[in-house]
């Protein structure tokens, strides 16, 4: 695909140069050197090497270099930078046989490292996550029948092996590997090897699976659906953007307005230009319906990139992307760092979603870094959402992003009617969570042959388990958190920590007072809600959708299929089911606890709750039949609830934006957090104090610093945590202040300092 339209991308001079024997080059190693995060952004991240005779290197070349006694992999970043005498430099050992890391991608690594205050080596590792992919695949061994008849008795296992191989050969498949055959015949590898030794099977070379080539390519010329007038205008603007260069296009359309169909036109435009497209989604497991629609539009599937892909598959996929053999990739945030050979478009779907923020390792926001990559690659970025983030809208306001609006649902569908159920008037018994009006709405929907969805954003059976004899509450041994009871797992009820994964059997007796059978679950989780609905409405077919019951894409697809086939009357789930689904017969949505997210009081509590509930509400009435949304609340006057009922998103966002502006909070101010943690509380405190002192020296004038204060989750995985929060105006360079402060603070042993620029979570 790189052959067409290379004119659109000016050749980068810096990349055109060649390093020859005797030249010095700076190499960024893939491994962080000596784990010294304090050196992030400094020159010490890269090391100089000499180019040996017989090796020509371009910038971006992936090379092996000696480091101490080891050979490590790194990337040529540019000309040498140090002043060490040439005689003291070691030569590059050799090149690895993969496409070089492009100039824009190298600049992205540098930009992400400095923005997130992370070692560039750690960011580079996200670009080159699979060592084996850096060499071409070796030809693999495949098995064929020799024609020799097996000697002696033919066991059932051996017969199964022979059947698998002859069936494959008859179907024209490439010769399978030993492991493939063993799996298909359900025998051990030894059985297959035995047949090779006996001369019944022979090993032949088959071409190493390159991946991507076998799959048909998406075809942009297939006709898409006829677009409505607003959709046509929005699509034209996006298609135009694909022909230009960098811009950010905010596709702001109500739920069910057809944003997907519209940005598919931009993907088609990129494909027509022979370029690759990347679509980032919050969770790849939830893309079943999206993939169906992609296939319907383009006649072939895109590449799905996610962490659960098998190792061999990931390796092939990575190379296929790097070699330009994959036209479209859909993936979760890590796909942002794939080495596209010729990227032409980035789409971030559900751009407001908090799942785009990576909270471990390199702490980055994939939406924001996607915009950075778009700018560096000179390609457009489409941010699609029915509930854009305030950050995004502020950039629209500033004129930096363009907004394309879709004000109405597609076709005959209308926005659902939203009502509050004031729970203060409902007088439900303490163990009931579904009010009479909500129950009635579900019954009515089922009577009309329609479906209902109940939403509660809490996994498990009950968020708290308490001993009725002594009041003891079951806590996680290594976190500041209650243990959550889960009942849907094998082997009886379990208590699980949602922060660290600690998992124990629900004990028979209270660990504090010894009383037996006195545990009481407190409050509802999705499993308890399902139990209640099954009891209240025994004639209805209930299904549960939460990450505990839907472990991967297949389980999700199975449940989606049942919903689409009308085999489910009531779908009960967590935020997992809020994202993008389209069920034509779903007309009633019930939010069991609309107040749940509002209590937190962090910066985005109201915005997040609004987004989540608007998305959930948006699942109702997406086809011919009108939808109805019922919000159970104890606070019907809350601005979020009022805005949802009135359908006044813009009014709500304006008020929210005003409050942030007054407070100098993001997106009108800039924040960065520091989390210091250590097994010993005194160590954590001492380092946090030092960091605060350092920050007072490095922060720009006018910036404020809060803390150190114990984090809301003061203990996590056995580590004590303290937080600092730096607040400044938008122009301030907080990453720089953070990087400088870290240089000043020695961080030893088990103490950890995490820097979170633009924090989303305050726990
Ligand atoms: N022009 C069109 N012709 C036919 N069907 C369409 C058209 N536009 C949208 N649709 C259909 O309408 C439904 C809703 O569209 P889509 O899912 O793209 O909306 P959305 O804006 O992404 O919604 P959400 O934000 O809720 O995910 C889908 O089934 C889609 O196939
Ligand atoms: Zn825990």
UniProtKB/TrEMBL annotation:
It holds the Pfam family Zn_ribbon_PriA. PROSITE patterns: HELICASE_ATP_BIND_1. Coiled coil: none annotated. Keywords: ATP-binding, DNA replication, DNA-binding, Helicase, Hydrolase, Isomerase, Metal-binding, Nucleotide-binding, Primosome, Zinc. SMART domains: DEXDc, HELICc. Zn(2+) 1 binds at residues 467, 470, 510, 513. Its EC number is 5.6.2.4. Its cofactor is Zn(2+). Residues 240-406 form the Helicase ATP-binding domain. Binds 2 zinc ions per subunit. Signal peptide: none annotated. Component of the replication restart primosome. Belongs to the helicase family. PriA subfamily. Initiates the restart of stalled replication forks, which reloads the replicative helicase on sites other than the origin of replication. Recognizes and binds to abandoned replication forks and remodels them to uncover a helicase loading site. Promotes assembly of the primosome at these replication forks. This is Replication restart protein PriA.
